């Protein structure tokens, strides 16, 4: 097979990333994180777009250099069209358009949520690739969905959050505990040292395969405030146990819904995607489900869970094979369904 080099560009939120693929293999995946947001306790959209503007050229140059090719060898340019923060998306979109025009190669618009899922088709030495149809639990800072994936671009949302995303539940809980943004990875870290049964939080009652996390966040807030009034050192003394209990509750909610989805569809090939799929507890629980429920699970490598351009490039490659190109008049879209 002739090598096809695709450049992927991701700028939907607070990470500027560029990646070059050769067919379905990743040659480079460069990510510039934006430290600036941590002191604000969340992503500040205006600051994010300015940082993208500053990072995009060096990040793309690095991705091409690390792939050991010249930009003239690229076959196409894929970029994140949405969903995401408008100002951030515009930086990647405009840059991708200009470069594609300059190089006179096809431009490919990619849906960020589809790309999280299609990261499973990156070819590595040791990875399992899911067969169609499979279910994907897509969990990130902006989304929480159970998606039935019938084919590369045939996806159906079976359930999704009616309020906060699961990543938000992690990050907001962390904020209540005084941890910096993004708090998800920190909750994961402290939870490893704590007792997941130390405190119990009620699971939300929400229909069918949908999710709700805003009630849980409020319950955690009231619980912590009350305990702090009794003992002002509560958070400090019990941080590990609190984190473990919060994480346990969130993962229970996710697993319950996944079990329902398997029951409903009869599909036992289960993948996870999105930033929260880096969480060690959800990874453990899925591995256990292989034994207990006879599921086959697909867990992405860490570097392909949180936002990255490798997933945009692989999706671009799959679209390239279909000749699914975009016009240069294509626009970014803050809201976009899978
Ligand atoms: O997919 P992603 O990088 O960006 C979005 O598209 O939203 O996901 C970021 C989210 C954040 O909420 C972050 O706290 C969460 O993923 N996250 C984690 C872990 N690593 C990242 N949440 C729990 N445990 C982790 N290990
Ligand atoms: Zn994402």
Output the keywords.
338 residues; alpha/beta; 9 helices; Nucleotidyltransferase, domain 5; five-stranded mixed sheet; cytoplasm; globular; binds zinc ion
Description:
- The chain is of the alpha/beta class.
- The protein has two domains: 5-120 and 305-322, ATPase, nucleotide binding domain (Nucleotidyltransferase, domain 5); 130-300, Nucleotidyltransferase, domain 5 (2-Layer Sandwich).
- Helices cover 42% and strands 19% of the residues.
- It has nine helices and ten strands.
- It has helices at residues 45-66, 86-103, 112-118, 166-176, 184-191, 214-230, 234-265, 280-292, 310-322, and strands at 5-10, 15-22, 25-33, 76-82, 107-111, 134-139, 144-151, 154-160, 269-273, 296-298.
- A five-stranded mixed sheet has the order 3-2-1-4-5, sandwiched between helices. Strands 8-7-6-9-10 form a five-stranded mixed sheet, sandwiched between helices.
- It is globular.
- The mean pLDDT is 96.
- Residues 112, 116, 140, 274-275, 307 line the site of zinc ion (ZN).
């Amino acid at each position: 097979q002739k090598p096809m080099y695709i450049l992927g560009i991701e700028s939907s939120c607070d990470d500027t990333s560029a990646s070059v693929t050769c067919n379905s293999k990743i040659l480079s995946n460069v990510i510039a994180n934006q430290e600036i947001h941590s002191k604000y306790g969340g992503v500040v959209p205006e600051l994010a777009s300015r940082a993208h503007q500053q990072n995009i050229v060096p990040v793309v140059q690095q991705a091409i250099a690390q792939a050991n090719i010249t930009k003239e060898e690229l076959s196409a340019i894929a970029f994140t069209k949405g969903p995401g923060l408008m100002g951030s998306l515009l930086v990647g979109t405009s840059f991708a358009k200009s470069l594609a025009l300059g190089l006179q190669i096809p431009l490919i618009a990619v849906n960020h949520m589809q790309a999280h899922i299609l990261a499973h088709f990156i070819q590595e030495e040791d990875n399992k690739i899911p067969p169609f149809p499979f279910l994907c639990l897509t969990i990130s800072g902006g989304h929480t969905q159970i998606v039935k994936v019938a084919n590369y671009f045939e996806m159906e949302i079976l359930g999704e959050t009616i309020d906060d995303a699961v990543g938000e539940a992690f990050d907001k809980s962390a904020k209540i505990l005084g941890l910096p943004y993004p708090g998800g990875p920190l909750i994961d870290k402290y939870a490893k040292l704590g007792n997941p049964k130390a405190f119990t939080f009620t699971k939300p009652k929400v229909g069918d395969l949908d999710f709700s996390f805003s009630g849980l966040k409020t319950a955690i807030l009231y619980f912590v405030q009350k305990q702090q009034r009794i003992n002002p050192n509560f958070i400090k003394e019990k941080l590990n146990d609190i984190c473990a209990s919060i994480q346990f509750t969130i993962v229970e909610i996710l697993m319950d819904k996944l079990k329902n989805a398997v029951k409903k569809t009869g599909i036992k090939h289960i993948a996870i995607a999105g930033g929260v799929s880096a969480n060690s507890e959800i990874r453990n629980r899925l591995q256990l489900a292989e034994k207990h429920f006879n599921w086959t699970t697909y867990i992405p490598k860490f570097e392909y869970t949180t936002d990255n351009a490798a997933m945009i490039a692989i999706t671009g490659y799959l679209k390239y094979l279909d000749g699914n190109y975009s016009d240069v008049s294509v626009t970014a879209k803050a809201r976009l369904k899978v």
